[in-house]
Amino acid sequence: FEAVAQDSLMAAVKPALQHLVKVLAESNPGRYSFLWHWFDEIYVLLDLLLQQHYLARCSASFSENFYSLKRIPMGDGRQQPLATAGLPKRQHWKSLLLLVLVPYLKGKLEKLVSSLREEDEYSIHPPSSSWKRFYRAFLAAYPYVNMTWEGWFLIQQLGYILGKAEHHSPMLKLAGVRLVRLTAEDILALEKKWAETTPTQTHSITSRVQSALRKALGGIAFSLSTGLSVSVFFLQFLDWWYSSENQETIKALTALPTPPPPVHLEHEPSSALLPSLKTVCPLCRKVRVNATALATSGFVFCYRCAYSHVKAHQRCPVTGYATELQHLVKLYSPES
């Protein structure tokens, strides 16, 4: 479960940030339009920084560490190294490139295909041009290539679930690593590493600049990781809130019939009884003059009767609801 869930975690982060940048760009194009224009490049740089930080410190990507997983070299029969030991350089850089570069290139390819399809609908190239034939062949082949790519991942996941494969993702196999759960020793080592503060004695200007730059990058990565960790639950809530199942539930609740009016209070001995004729005032028992309704209950009286009773008792004569003089509503008949 953790292996599959950590994949969906990072897949939910980018659309959320993209929506935020889009809102900012639309609200203030002069200041934030560059963020929208270069969003993919800015995101891949931040993702590179974040993943490098976690791979170096925890031997795992951000999402893998969030679900208490770590990467270890594949085919290593020795005792599992601690998460703080890091990956070998080869596996480290392959993991970093596959975590950051592959999703970036795939997203760019999807945007290219989308733009080519739009261009194909309003194409100005001659039907026999080589460029026209090339990108039409590319558009025709892309769905099959994408289906093969997704099928590769699906088959790998099925093999992992059935216990026939060591990896749930082909990217892990290409990186030469596999996922395992963090042990108690790993957690203690990580806590100790985060708590350690070891100031280094640097004398040269170059060493000081490198140390300051390393600390700054580490601080930025730590801030990003902390912010993402806090926002993960909020993103999951938004995903549930805007899901089709929840929207159907909301529509079903809002489509319920209007509830009945409140039950009238029991009549007190001094309360007015409703007359059988609708044109008779419940107070004076005569045909209403200057018909006036009480907004709190809806009953209609003579204006003089309603005014005198409400002024004296501050309640409806029939229901006993609390009523003020401003609740008197004069009614006008069509003949008047």
TrEMBL record:
Keywords: Membrane, Metal-binding, Peroxisome, Protein transport, Transmembrane, Transmembrane helix, Transport, Zinc, Zinc-finger. CDD domains: mRING_PEX12. Pathway: Protein modification; protein ubiquitination. It is a multi-pass membrane protein. GO terms for molecular function: ubiquitin-protein transferase activity; zinc ion binding. It is found in: Peroxisome membrane. Pfam families: Pex2_Pex12. GO terms for biological process: protein import into peroxisome matrix; protein monoubiquitination. InterPro entries: PEX12, Pex_N, Znf_RING/FYVE/PHD. GO terms for cellular component: peroxisomal importomer complex; peroxisomal membrane. Residues 7-244 form the Pex N-terminal domain. Belongs to the pex2/pex10/pex12 family. Component of a retrotranslocation channel required for peroxisome organization by mediating export of the PEX5 receptor from peroxisomes to the cytosol, thereby promoting PEX5 recycling. The retrotranslocation channel is composed of PEX2, PEX10 and PEX12; each subunit contributing transmembrane segments that coassemble into an open channel that specifically allows the passage of PEX5 through the peroxisomal membrane. PEX12 also regulates PEX5 recycling by activating the E3 ubiquitin-protein ligase activity of PEX10. PANTHER family: PEROXISOME ASSEMBLY PROTEIN 12, PEROXISOME ASSEMBLY PROTEIN 12 PEROXIN-12. This is Peroxisome assembly protein 12. It comes from Melanocharis versteri (Fan-tailed berrypecker).
